[in-house]
Design goal:
67% of the residues lie in helices and 2% in strands. By secondary structure, the protein is mainly alpha-helical.
Amino acid sequence: MCPIQAKDHLAADPPPVPRLVPPAGSATGTLRPAGADGAGRATTRVVPLGQATADVTAVDADVPAAVGRVLEDLLADRLTRAHAMDALFARELAERVARFTREGGKRARSQLVWWSLRACGGTDTTAAAAGLRIGAALELLQTCALVHDDVMDGSALRRGRPALHADVRDHYARTAPAARAARFGEAAAVLAGDLALVWADDVLAETVLDPWTATVVRRLWSDMRTEMVAGQYLDLQGQLTGSRSVPRALRAACLKSALYSVERPLALGAAVAGADAVTVRALCSAGRCVGMAFQLRDDLNDVFGDPRRTGKRSAEDIREGKPTYLVALAVARARAAGDRHALAVLERALGDDGLTPAGLDAIRDVLERTGARTTVESRIERLTAQGLRHADRARLEPVAGARLRALLASTGGAPLPDDGSVRPHPVTPEVRR
């Protein structure tokens, strides 16, 4: 991991990954043909579910829909197997995991995998199918992260609907005491997240890749999962200790969101395409910057966004006492200015689940008066621009590279060209993704 410092250049040294240059004779993205092996024995090519060859042009037209179709096949298979194990388990847990994943957000990470693959020259139909499967695995991993996150944060809503643990709790509200139903709902959600993680790992493990590419992809996947856990732990530890350190807030944001949401998906797509080391390094640097911009925009949306878009109460992070960069910056500014009133407002509000509309207005006033909001907005713009400069140094295919660049700009919150030349599926940061 590269150390995260409290300055804009967060992408100078992305974490090392295996060198993404295929050795001579490598058949990246191809399958062993049916026929005979080296000893003359008959062989059969086994193609996992969802790994039929993909028409790259058709996928280009609608990446989220293509990933959705792969997910449908994979989830149908998993549900069939779950029902064969136990009908109750399948109905009450596995089907909830499948429904949550199907109703997922904008398939942001899947789009980044796809356009990274295409921009790095991935045109082989089998490699494209592998890219779609990796995108589907990321959607299942996102299900795991969000379901567990809702339990840890005690959030009752997700995407404007009851969170999974709240849904299970309500299902048993009439047959068990309230406290036991609530505890059961949380335990079931932990298992649901675990199930989504198991399915995600299975999808990745069963994806057909040549041995060299498989080694790179699995290393990236392993690092990404550990980074997610580390970032979440830092987030929770900051809530417990009341940490308001700006560098710590940035480090947690990088581990929890920037790497997982942008940098690693880009690296995974590049790996499947067999990109060279220079291109991979440029894309990782771009992803680090844009990923940080994405998370900082998320922090702003938590306080200043419309609940109808975020799918949750305003200032959920404030109510939970999360050590976001926005809050840490406001505290630092208030201390430096000796602004006791601002510090008192922040101290009262942070961690207050019963925050009133007046209290929220007071928090917004402090974030604006200390200059924290303006500083974060400016930093988002700088990080996005810096990320796009890194992307410009990558060796990308012109057309797909332009699509990837536009997607990165959209992810970081930058405006798209108004000439209609590039129309990626937009990825607007929302607090409850």
